[in-house]
Amino acid sequence: MTTPNFIILYVDSPERSGAFYASLLGREPVESSPTFVMFVLDKGFKLGLWSRHTVEPAATATGGGGELVLAVENAAAVDATHADWTGRGLNVLQAPTDLDFGRSFVALDPDNHRLRVYWPFEGAQG
Question: Is the pLDDT of residue 96 over 70?
Answer without folding.
Answer: yes
